[in-house]
Amino acid sequence: MPEAFIIDAVRTPVGKRGGALAAMHSADLAAHTLSALMRRTGVDPGAVDDVILGCCDTIGSQAGDIARSAWLVAGLPDHVPGVTIDRQCGSSQQAVHFAAQGVMSGTQDLVVAGGVQNMSAIPISAAMLVGQQYGFTTPFAESPGWAARYGDADVSQFNSAEMIAEKWDISREEMEEFALASHTRARTAIAEGRFEREIEPVALPDGQSFDTDQCPRETSLEKMAGLEPLAPGGRITAAVASQICDASTAMLIASEAAVAEHNLTPRARVHHLSVRGDDPIWMLTGPIRATAHALKRTGLAIEDIDLFECNEAFASVVLAWMKETGAPHDKVNVNGGGIALGHPIGATGTRLMTTLLNELERTGGRYGLQTMCEGGGQANVTIIERL
């Protein structure tokens, strides 16, 4: 089967809610990383077959196929098409899957994959709120078919995070220790310059250069213990949940023929890609089933994987996944995760993969596995092999 190679990957720094990127139009935010990717790789932009970007809540500045508009805003050739996809939190990871599948099918040679989300400008679930004008409170509340299958069960990521903590007997204190480790690892990574290669600084209107992730905090277990739970009597607090933020990402996926034709040097090979579903009411348990499926398909064991990225939507999600898979914490989210670095929904998949790629190179690891929980009870898994 033809191979799909990762040539390069770039991202903006992650801006905190209301922070450095809050006022930036989403198309310009995505255009920034598209331009940087083309410049860094030296590829003729006119040779790109397609641009696939993940984005959720595609209204306002994110509406109208932002993959297409961002490419045009970047001043890149207008004959190159673009498509925007929504697999909830896994949208840009799925963008990489579609790009790799296009290359592996032999129908495409150069595909850009990435994602964008300005959560400061377009709040999470904004599209659902818009729907209320037309009498829809959620995408499924008024569906007779949904009600026949799932009744009136609470479809909520917060409820799912609580259910997971209870089922896997994960205490609030255990989650807070995990959250503190995320912040500590992220601040260490920043201090040691581990993200510098993957970040393309953004010139701000005031003339400053924004080049460092804004979300990691100086915090403590004592501060976390003082927070009120999101639900009365619950274990989940804001301290153990991912942060709302803004960012964009882009990766170039190439065929073997394109590597030769454009004189490119691949950084990694896509070793495996898959996606699985799980109970949509539990919603966030998908990575457990998806990881087991991926390892079975590849014949790899947890011990064969050098580094893992499991998105920190909530601490309970990753802790339950580690308990079920046996993945050791010292190999999981080693530079921090969504609790510390933020979760810019449409861009998170390729943000994780960009960091995973760079960390494999820094440490000399061979295989990196990435997974993340997604709305609807889904989860993507990508295994990349450093070259």
TrEMBL record:
Sequence ranges assigned to domain Thiolase C-terminal in this UniProt record: 265-386
SUPFAM superfamilies per record: Thiolase-like
Cross-referenced InterPro entries: Thiolase (IPR002155), Thiolase-like (IPR016039), Thiolase_C (IPR020617), Thiolase_CS (IPR020613), Thiolase_N (IPR020616)
Keywords in alphabetical order: Acyltransferase, Transferase
Keyword Transferase: yes
Residues covered by the Thiolase N-terminal domain: 5-256
A molecular-function term among this protein's GO annotations: acyltransferase activity, transferring groups other than amino-acyl groups
Claim: Transferase is one of the keywords in the record: yes
Top-level lineage group: Bacteria
Active site per the UniProt annotation: 89 (acyl-thioester intermediate), 343 (proton acceptor), 373 (proton acceptor)
Gene3D superfamilies assigned: 3.40.47.10
Protein family (similarity comment): Belongs to the thiolase-like superfamily. Thiolase family.
This protein's name: Acetyl-CoA C-acetyltransferase
Organism: Nocardioides szechwanensis
